[in-house]
Specification:
mainly alpha; 4 strands; about 140 residues; elongated
Amino acid sequence: MAFEAPTAEQLALYLGLPEIDGARADLLIRQAVALCETVVKPLPEQATAVVLSVAGRAYVNPQQVSYETIGPMSVQRPQGSGGLYLTKSDKAALKSLAGRGGAFTVDPTPATADPSPTWPPDPEYGPPLEWEPGWGWT
């Protein structure tokens, strides 16, 4: 089954909001899908959770405010604030859902390799050798 982008209603349910701005939610979901596709394309069916997480983060906190004091008003924003972004765990989840990013083995042996042993050498092959004291095999 192919990936289906979540709806604005699903985003509202995910965020626990009774009402949601449908046009804004649809825009954020489309942008979250496009952002997730920069990591894995096509998106796996289970990527809905990551898309909802990315879109929900941007819907609830569009300016990425990380610190806020009410009186006498103080706000802290990270550099490059605003917009959608993928965390390291979002990227790892997408790769894992797509079946990538795990441990693997690479066999460097060529397919044409001969499995016969090369040691010890075949005594029938090559010139006969004789042991000569003081000189070794000649």
